[in-house]
Amino acid sequence: MNILLTGATGYIGQRLLPLLVEAGHHVTCLVRDARRFELPAGLRNRIVVAEGDLLKPDSLTDLPLDVDVAYYLVHSMSGHDKDFFRLEQESAQHFAHYLNRTRCRQVIYLSGIANDRALSVHLRSRKAVEKVLRKTSKAQLTVLRASIIIGSGSASFEIIRDLVEKLPVMVTPRWLNSRCQPIGIRDVMHYLTTVLNNPACLGQSFDIGGPDVLTYREMLLELAAARGLKRYIVTVPVLTPRLSSWWLYLVTSTTFSLAQSLVESLRNDTVADPRRSIGEAVPHICMPYRAAVELAFQRIEQNEVVSSWSDALSSGVMPRNYMDHIQIPQHGLLTDRQTLRFTRPPREVLQNVWSIGGERGWYKVDWLWRIRGLLDKLVGGVGLRRGRRSPTDLRAGDPLDFWRVLVADRAGRRLLLYAEMKLPGEAWLQFRILPHDDGSHTLEQLAAFRPHGLLGRLYWYSLVPFHFIIFKGMIENIVQYGETVPLPASASSPLPTKQAVAPK
């Protein structure tokens, strides 16, 4: 079938896309900016990428009309402005009006379980979007409502993991006693693919969940047990939603807007209603919570994290048109340019560049980077805790600590990062490996900053002494990391050599 996939750059969409292609469907991915949608090599010739913004109906006029089924995976847990509720409904209306010009016969929407009273704004928004799609679209709607999704890279899993691994004793708000019905990402994928063109699912809404109904407190303790950790939780009534949001924001890798949204939603019980069970239409046994947690850690340990919540632009402060910054401006910049010639194989140095940040760190005085990340957190930025999707692989659009990857060109030996941290200006960090005729190469490291007014210039010049320490040592350590240490000329006997030179 011809399938239109929205939200293809998000956590769910990135995992669903290869499953649809492997099943033999013709998939068109609707994205705002095709430049930030980097596909795995095996999929590039098997899908179509179409540009369109659901908030701008004029941008949808040239989209394909030969659509059989559409997946609507568009929503933002990080949206927290006053117009969020209205904008989500407008997006759904524009999408439905476009589909009415096509031959589409089914729309599949992933929503949230919303059976509680006094719903959070995000759960109310999910229900409102369901109503818009059902009322406006001529295609039959299939809704899957899920609670907490557990999988490597999911926002819920990463927050629970952060809390458990960092805090032996937790003082928590009352919402930790709310109940939910977690479901593994593998089971979500199963339902998303099996309701496709399933007659029993047309026009139906289902609550999907795993076999366990747990409080958030029980989820934390169960994950701690899976990791062999002893944790203590004290629940207090005095933490307001805003204080709870700040608590989550400062302790975990989440953004403040996402923390706000989660805290509001976690006050609701999200337990599946047996009357909306999907069991008859799609018989399937879901994984228990503990099994989903253990599978997520296996994927992390095997470096097989397909997608992460932080892939989405809403995980940072980037403008939606951030790929317009893919070329560093030629004028009005303050720069620090370092170069270092080397003779070791360029692929080894390139891999060191590709492994920067995250667990590897920034190759020089990591404690200064951590302080900068903490300061960024305190002023509402993303901080360093987002880490990276993979310890060794990068692709355009990836988050990388408090940077966003604009260009990850292995063939051209170029990596370009754009700052998502709070700054009085715009910042880029670029690495290039340049060849020489004698077989040697040069690593070029360019830090560029376009200041906004006098404050921006004062910011840059105040950091110049730190730049001298950081950037010079940084390029040296990138070139040397992992290189076999040569023996001194005076050595009289061979000695074991180091295979990994740690950053100085």
Automatic annotation (TrEMBL):
Residues 7-147 form the NAD(P)-binding domain. InterPro entries: DUF2867 (IPR021295), NAD(P)-bd_dom (IPR016040), NAD(P)-bd_dom_sf (IPR036291), NAD(P)-dependent_oxidoreduct (IPR051783). It comes from the Bacteria. Signal peptide: none annotated. One of its GO terms (molecular function) is aldehyde dehydrogenase (NAD+) activity. GO terms for cellular component: cytoplasm. Coiled coil: none annotated. This is NAD-dependent epimerase/dehydratase. It comes from Hymenobacter swuensis DY53.
